[in-house]
Amino acid sequence: MNQQSRLAGDFINQRTNLLAQKLRETGEDSRLEEYLRQKLIECRWRDDLKDYCKEVIRQKGLEKITIEELTDMLYVRGQATIPNKVKEDLLSRLRQFFDENQI
């Protein structure tokens, strides 16, 4: 990795850390978390993930699957199935916060 790439990476890390700090200081992190929770409930993402969990347990058997395996499967499935509209809305809110706070 050359020095220019390293400097760019450092700059991005600094901005990311500053954004995270501002989100915490203003309480916006909690508001965004609640917004995300509500959107995922509204689009049935949570219910679909719960149904998927039950189906995996039925197929594999409760005695043949570990909590770690189930958690890993749910994590992958959960990330892959978040609707694009929800991701776009959340990103838009983050950008707006970023701009308003001149980060």
TrEMBL record:
Record keyword Protein transport present: yes
Pfam families in the cross-refs: EnY2 (PF10163)
Top-level taxon: Eukaryota
UniProt-listed InterPro entries: TF_ENY2 (IPR018783)
Listed GO MF terms: transcription coactivator activity
GO biological process entries: chromatin organization; mRNA export from nucleus; protein transport; transcription elongation by RNA polymerase II
Keywords: Activator, Chromatin regulator, mRNA transport, Nucleus, Protein transport, Transcription, Transcription regulation, Translocation, Transport
Cellular compartments per GO CC: DUBm complex; nuclear pore; nucleoplasm; SAGA complex; transcription export complex 2
Compartments where located: Nucleus, Nucleoplasm
Residue ranges of coiled coil: none
The keyword Protein transport is annotated on this UniProt entry: yes
Function noted in UniProt: Involved in mRNA export coupled transcription activation by association with both the TREX-2 and the SAGA complexes. The transcription regulatory histone acetylation (HAT) complex SAGA is a multiprotein complex that activates transcription by remodeling chromatin and mediating histone acetylation and deubiquitination. Within the SAGA complex, participates to a subcomplex that specifically deubiquitinates histones. The SAGA complex is recruited to specific gene promoters by activators, where it is required for transcription.
Subunit structure: Component of the nuclear pore complex (NPC)-associated TREX-2 complex (transcription and export complex 2). Component of the SAGA transcription coactivator-HAT complex. Within the SAGA complex, participates to a subcomplex of SAGA called the DUB module (deubiquitination module).
PANTHER family, per the entry: ENHANCER OF YELLOW 2 TRANSCRIPTION FACTOR
Family, as annotated: Belongs to the ENY2 family.
Protein name listed in UniProt: Transcription and mRNA export factor ENY2
Organism: Paramecium primaurelia
